[in-house]
Amino acid sequence: MVFIFNPFTKIAGGKALWIGGLFAILTLAISYFSHSAFDGVIDFHVAPFTSIWPYVSFYIISWLCLVLFLGLTGLLFTKTRFRWIDILGTTLLSRAPLLLVALAAFAIPYIDKEQLSDITQIHFTAGFFIASFFSLICIIWTVALYYNSYRVCINIYGSKAVWTFILALILAEITSLVFIHSIHFK
Questions:
Q1: What pLDDT tens digit does each residue of the chain (186 aa) get?
Q2: Three-class SS of residue 94?
Q3: In 3-state terms, what secondary structure has residue 176?
Q4: In angstroms, rounded to a whole number, what is the distance separating the alpha carbons of residues 126 and 107?
Q5: What are the boundaries of each domain within the chain?
Q6: What's the burial of 149, exposed, middle or buried (CB within 10 Å: 0-12/13-18/19+)?
Q7: In Å, what is the CA distance from 83 to each residue of 33, 80, 145, 153?
Q8: CA dist 139 → 127, 144, 173 (Å)
Q9: CA neighbours within 13 Å on the CB side: how many for 44?
Q10: Residues 6+ apart with CB under 8 A from 147
Q11: Which helix (H) or strand (E) holds 23?
Q12: Which bin fits 129, alpha (ψ -120 to 50), beta or left (φ > 0)?
């Protein structure tokens, strides 16, 4: 059970980057068909695009923003040396549960702005609620993996680890949203 939430004591660096890359490729392939847009470090929306490139761009921007802020936080708040390859690899591997979110998105319909004006016309199914709840659980799992990745790679513990991680996560989320929403895809 510990391995599910913290594989980073055994897998880090290039190995984590390679395995995380395989999960990313699978997730993005499924995302294109299930219309799963991971448009932020902890965001997920169903958004139909005609090309795979918005899905790929959102995924990479979110991941790199997280890497940047976790690394900067480590530089500012710890005296220990760390390897950027470890942060790159473990954060990418931390995104593995998003594969399950992309699969669950097949049960979540796209709702555009016009439909939101008359919510009574939208028919929510049991599958919608189950897939949405399952997706939320997977995103929480992903955040737990982010935290353990940060804690192990930066070698930081206790309340300092918690508060600096929260700071880095918030800054990464805001930065990723700014970048992603400045890009206009159809």
A1: 667 888 988 888 899 999 999 999 999 999 999 999 999 999 988 888 889 999 999 999 999 999 999 999 999 999 888 999 999 999 999 999 999 999 998 887 765 555 545 555 556 667 778 888 998 999 999 999 999 999 999 999 999 999 999 999 999 999 999 999 888 765
A2: helix
A3: helix
A4: 9
A5: 8-108+124-182
A6: buried
A7: 36, 10, 18, 8
A8: 18, 9, 13
A9: 29
A10: 161, 162, 165
A11: helix 13-34
A12: alpha
What is the crossing angle of helices 126-154 and 84-94, to 10°?
A: 160
Q: At what angle do helices 13-34 and 84-94 cross, to 10 degrees?
A: 30
AA identity, residue 109: P
Which token pair is 49?
A: 């695009």
Burial of 80 (0-12, 13-18, 19+ CB in 10 A): exposed
Give dist(CA 154, CA 136) in Å, integer: 27
Pick from 95, 34, 29: which is nearest to 62 by CA? 95
